[in-house]
Every structure is written in structure tokens, then in C-alpha cells.
Request: fold
Amino acid sequence: MPFKDIIGHDKTIRDIQRLMDEDRLPHALLFTGPEGIGKKLTGFSIAKALMCKESKNDFCDSCPSCQSISKGNHPDVALIQPEGNSIKIEQMREWQKTLEYRPYLGSHRVTIIDQAEKMTQAAANSILKALEEPPLGTLICLVTIETRDMLPTIVSRCQVVRFSPLSCSDFCKILLDKSNISGPQARLVYNISKGQLSKGISMNMDYLSKLRDEWIGSFRSPSFDNISVTKTDQANLLEGLEIMAYWVRDMVLLQLGVDDALLTHQDMLGELKKEARKVPYRLAMHRIDIILQTMEALQNNANPKIAMDCLLWQWDKSTNKEMVMI
Ligand SMILES: [Zn+2]
Reply:
């Protein structure tokens, strides 16, 4: 898997390769961008490209060096990540000892600090010197979501490399390659995982389908007999409501005549079309509002039982009102 196989970040990868070709790769990089889109993968890919036995400034992914980085046992490549809730000073001290020695196998030593925003203040302060005056051949690659989560003293010592969210088509392309999810299901996974590839890949489609059947069934009645609100935590409710919001949105899109390929629940196209014929456009739009309001209330820590009762009451009221108007 050479650089060209990293999907969705063509320009970023091109820039990195150009810096490598010109021998100007900075010794400290700060990768920022949404979770689960390939920042850490890019960090490991740079490590491979610096050490690959077969390619220069790219990597073959099959030589002993590339293989050992993939397996996580290359002596000159380290991954530091939170132990518990934070990256601690002890972890950094341990790692900094390794910087005192020359790389074991080649000319480079690469360290990837994942979720770098979770470094404690002491841990963050302890790496300032390494960022300022790194030993020859050192590359430190910090990975985070936003630069504002990092100490300005760290940001100013790194070259910031911004990663954009994956487009839906890039996301689906990778997802279909790495999981057994079918094409029509991929868009649902993209929307529910908010474009976070690592989350999407780990999603269980059986679980999502079951959750969707449960919620759609309950909204059809409409009652929430199948959904035990008292036993369901806020995160589960939000997940179910989001699925429903996309379901009703799909009905609206169908009524507007958009391309089926833009629907979230493409794998249930027949059901959707049937339902879209039954629910008037204005009622569907109103239902989306009700669902979004409930999600907002839950995100603001509303009592789940009261929030869902309120949703049901509004749902019933809007349905009856619409029926009278028809
Ligand atoms: Zn290689």
C-alpha cells in the first residue's frame, strides 16, 4: 500500500512527498482533522517511507521494515497514546530515554503521539525540548483533532498538516474494501459514523439494522413500546433518533425527486418509497423538526423519559392535525 493508495488526502500526501523528495521534511509534524480519517495511518506511512528497503520516499508495504512497522514491532518506530485518560509524564520520560541513542536499524526514528491533546501539562512541557532540538533523524508526529486543543508552545514548534474530512464517496470506497458492508448500506454507515472511517469500519451492520427496524416500527405505531426509554441511555437514544431523522429525510428527498444514490437508507428503498407516498411532505418536514429538537434536548441533558414523551405527544398531535387538514 504505497502513498498513492491512501484515499481521500491526495493533496496532503502530495505535499508530504514533495517535502521528502526535497529533503525538507520537518522534524515535528502536527496532524489535525476529524477523528478516524487516516491521520495516524499517514504517520505510519511516512515512517515506512523513511525506512523502506525497496522504495525511496515511498513504501512497498512488504519488505521486512514495512512489515515490522505494520506489526508494531519496529524498534525505531514508537506509538504513544493515552494510558487511561491521559498521556503521562512517565510515558514521555520513558520515550525520551530512547532518543538518547542512535536509531537501531537505520537513519530515522519516528514517534507518533496519538490523541496528543491528552498529554498532561507536565507531559506536554517535557517534549518541548525534543521538538525544539531533536536528535538527528528524529521525526515526531503529533495527531489531534484541533490545534486549539494543544498548547501554543507545541503548535508553534510543529508544522501543522490539516486533514479534511473524507468525502462520502472516498469513505464508501474504503469501507467497502475493508468491511463486509454492502454498497447500499455504506451511506447509512457514513452518515451515522459522521464520516469517521475507523468508527464506520467497526460498526456492526446487524446491530444497525436491528436498531433501525426497532425505531421505524415504533414510529409507525406510533408508540415506543419497543424502545425501553428507562433502560436506554442518552447515546443509544441519540443513535436511534438520528437513524429516524435520516429515514424521514429520505422520504422528503424522494418526494423532491432526488437521485436514489443520495439516500441514506438505500438498502430499504422499497419500504421508503411506500412510506413516502403515505406521509405528506409538510408532515415529514415537521417530523424532522421534532426529532432534531428532541436530539438537541437530549444533548443538553434533558431527562430521556420526558424528552421521549414530549416527542411522542408532538408526533401524535402533528399527525392528527395533518389528518384533519387533509
Ligand atoms: Zn518496504
Notes: The pocket of zinc ion is lined by residues 52-54, 59-60, 63, 65-66 (CB under 6 Å).
